[in-house]
Amino acid sequence: MGSVAEPLHMDPFPEQSREEDAGAVFVLESKGTWWHAGFHLTTAIVGPTILTLPYAFRGLGWGPGFLCLTTMGLVTFYSYYLMSKVLDHCEKAGRRHIRFRELAADVLGSGWMFYFVIVIQASINTGVGIGAILLGGECIQIMYSNIFPDGSLKLYEFIAMVTAVMIILSQLPTFHSLRHINLVSLLLSLGYTFLVVGACIHAGTSKNPPPRDYSLETSESARVFSAFTSISIIAAIFGNGILPEIQATVAPPATGKMVKGLLMCYAVIFVTFYSASVAGYWVFGNKSSSNILKSLMPDEGPSLAPTWVLGLAVIFVLLQLFAIGLVYSQVAYEIMETRSADVNQGLFSKRNLIPRIVLRTLYMIFCGFMAAMLPFFGDINGVVGAIGFIPLDFILPMLLYNMTYKPPRSSFTYWINISIIIVFTGAGLLGTFSSIRKLILDANKFKLFSSDVVD
Description:
The protein has helices at residues 15-18, 22-27, 34-45, 53-58, 62-92, 100-108, 111-147, 155-169, 179-204, 220-237, 243-248, 257-284, 292-296, 307-327, 330-340, 350-373, 377-405, 412-441. It is an all-alpha fold. The protein starts with 14 loop residues before the first helix and ends in a 14-residue tail after the last helix.
């Protein structure tokens, strides 16, 4: 793997200053085990977005779809493994980093990198928070419209309900305090995946199965755009962007523990990603919706699987969205509490409790308002995901490893890392272009505070 480079500079974020850092002491307290890290990682990666995988396959077909899914899985596991190695090395050198932005600024020795990472991270995390609330509102709307077909409630009212629950849950003070919620989240992801796979098998083996067509777009340019859009979707689904913050929750020494958490996470990924992709694309082919549940519950005609199965899957998705929203809010909470909390006062002292309640409530209200106002946020998030996840998950980990361990330029490791950086920089740029193109094409469907989510 190459020789380990000795640190050439002092730690710009020493342990002594961290003792006065309320964001580090409170939000990112280090008490967890490797399996707690596995729960957090799984919640950060394995979410309802896996239900879009059949849609991603329709732009690639069977062979390229499997190849892309497998490649992304291997590359992201390798990327996260390298990131954990860099964090372990810094910890052994007496420079334990608990924030992505601090790690990047320390290793790369660039002050602007600190702000680059924090802007990208904040954009992704807020985007995921808004998306989780929007999808949660949509889940309740689906259940409501099936029970009360002529009901008068609108999407923004369901979004308000989800936001109210998120405000309450957001008062859990630390990332570590989410460990039990994230264990339930892991089980929920397995639960709705198995329910959806069972529903797809039921639909595909019924007397009147959906017509299957696995052909790609007829136009060559449309095929290319669809392929890169699909690649961007799969890359974003594997995205994380908060691995250093998750590793920060592990009790020191953290060396080696994150790899065990990654193995747990990727075992769940293997089971859920492949089964959802195969079952959904097998049944619906190039007619797969961007959410396979919508394909199973068409607007016209009866559901293609038992209603109770689909209803339970929707409930599981809704419950997991709360956990996802909480996990991706932790970076925002840590930033806020670094400024607002007093580390010399207790975690639940009036001095710290009141600002925490006010700031976290305002943050969730902002996310809820944006979700209600922009029900076409999925298209915007596609652009944010392509711009954000690619540098944080596919470029910076390789660069940080090469800068820290300095493998010889003639080594296989060095060139694998450089190749990944080049390939995924290109894929990120093309994915961004494809996502912006889709945003422009869908622009005529956009309507503020609409009850219809743009697909």
